[in-house]
Specification:
homodimer, 79 residues, Mth169, Chain: A, phosphoribosylformylglycinamidine synthase activity (chains A, B), PurS-like_sf (chains A, B)
Chain lengths: 79, 79
């Protein structure tokens, strides 16, 4: 079973990487970009075949390692 | 209109970041993780309201700045 985890900075947390992308897009002539937020996506290939167990395991991974839940939020999708 | 771009390393391209995550998960006791790939996700807030034009603009951004198309593939979703 495969899972995709998307980790983004929470709203209100300054995102310098996203700001850098926004500036760079402006410099390249892309007008009309009001905001950019950059996060990370992690695709996991799991041996677990039960969807509920897999999701619980991935959430535990997020809490322990993949996301810093003080400043980041995460979303888990099974694919 | 908002767009989400997901940029992943192409299959076959070595992903040291993903490997590091896989090892770390193993060290934390998460068995049964067969593979990990890490990529980035970029959420754009666009002034453009026409879906087709917005997608074309985002694809141009990806080709010029957001993805290195030699080693990375990207996916655009309008949200």
């Amino acid at each position: 079973m495969k899972a995709r985890v998307t980790v983004m900075l929470k709203n209100g947390v300054l995102d310098p990487q996203g700001e850098a992308v926004r500036h760079a897009l402006g410099s390249l002539g892309f007008a009309g970009v009001n905001g950019v937020r950059q996060g990370k996506v992690i695709e996991l290939d799991l041996a677990e075949t039960d969807a509920a167990k897999a999701e619980a395991e991935v959430r535990a991974m997020c809490d322990k390692l993949l996301a810093n839940t003080v400043i980041e939020s995460y979303r888990v999708e099974l694919i």
